[in-house]
Amino acid sequence: MTVAARAPIVMAGAATGAATEFTQLANNGELIKLLESSGVQVDNQLTQITQLAEQIQNQLKIYENMLQNTKQLPAHIWGEVEGDLNQLRSIVSDGQSIAFSMANADDLLRQRFASYASLRTNLPEAESFSTIYQTWSDTNRDTIAATLSAASLTARQFDSEESTMAALRSLSEGADGQLKALQVGHQIAAQQVAQMQKLRGLVSQQMTMMGAWLQNEQTDRDLAQARRERFFESTVPPTTGGRTMEPQW
What we know:
Shape: elongated
Radius of gyration: 29 Å
Low-confidence stretches: 1-5, 7-20
Order of helices and strands: HHHHHH
Structural class: mainly alpha
Helix content: 55-70%
Mean pLDDT: 78
Largest sheet: none
Distance between the termini: 126 Å
């Protein structure tokens, strides 16, 4: 058996670093500044996550091809499979965290700024981004659960590193189990590539709308400031010009 060269997998980093708990910011000014800087950071992280999912997808296919030439993968190769599938579990978790955080941002802006709450969007049926993110999250979880169920696995076995590793160790006892794990992992990786692209599109759309709103808010503030400055800089009407009172000696 020829062992395929293992493709280097670049970790995306902690996606939750950008998925800041916006609710911790009591100051509206701080909230707005954070939102202005978060868009690019979240977009970069989603790009990294998508690339990681693609790398895992390709790597699992290599392992699957290797398994066709042998009854069972060697322990050291299976250990790499376990690492890749655990990274895949982290990808799912990171995506959910980003969706939750961006939904929080939408909710907070609606609560704190009437001008934002009154914005009309081109989302279906005038839904909020918060609702759209919840739908994305539910769909992603349901899709993963269906894929796992088809392989006689449960979504709970994919919830944590410990439960994932336990399920994989059980599957590794036979070639059929290894093949099943590789096929399921490959399907979930492909799903996550598509789902992260959708999530990236949602974040981009949300940040575009926020940017337009922030620009409008700034324009209104600048106009109000200009009016105040004109008011206070107005020339005070002269108080002289009448009859001059002079002392009479």
